[in-house]
Design a protein that fits this description.
By secondary structure, the chain is α+β, with helices and mostly antiparallel strands. It has three helices and eight strands.
Length: 195
Amino acid sequence: MASCSRCGAPLRADAFACPVCGLSVGAAPAGAVAQEATAHRRRQRLVIVVAAVAVVAALAVWIFLLRGPATTGDEFLGTWKSVSMGSIGSATVSRSGDAFSVLLAATQSEQTATVPAHLDGKELVITPGDFSASSDTNAKRLGLALRLYAGDFRIALASVDPTHLLLKVTGTSPAGNSVDERNQLEKTGPSPSPS
């Protein structure tokens, strides 16, 4: 009877590994290696499929449950005046079809600007790109002033109740300071007629 060259344990004639130390002592049958490789690939595929399903499920939960239902935007329509001190004194939101526009009036000056806005979940949002896309010269000026104040800013209107909105200006100033201005707006007039 043959013995293992490493540990000296007795080996069966058909053994391809030592039963004590695991040293390879002969060639494994070709079919066994191929079967093990196939089984390994199947396990890898199964893990990848399960991981992909888990990612899709997590994304679906976030979109449909945690983020909440999207809005039609009707709650934003109308004229709103600031009830607290902030950089924006008033806002008039109108809609033509699916396109929203917001007439913003600054608190400290008579400057007004009309900019496009878009829905994002439950908020009506204005970004620097919206100011740039506006044909209103004052919008470009106000956009520049907001960039100096809050860098790559984001203005978001969120409905509090039928007569109040929360206007949030967030960003990071060019000096690196965090900007998180919150301003409550109160409804003072109905929705303007679409133009």
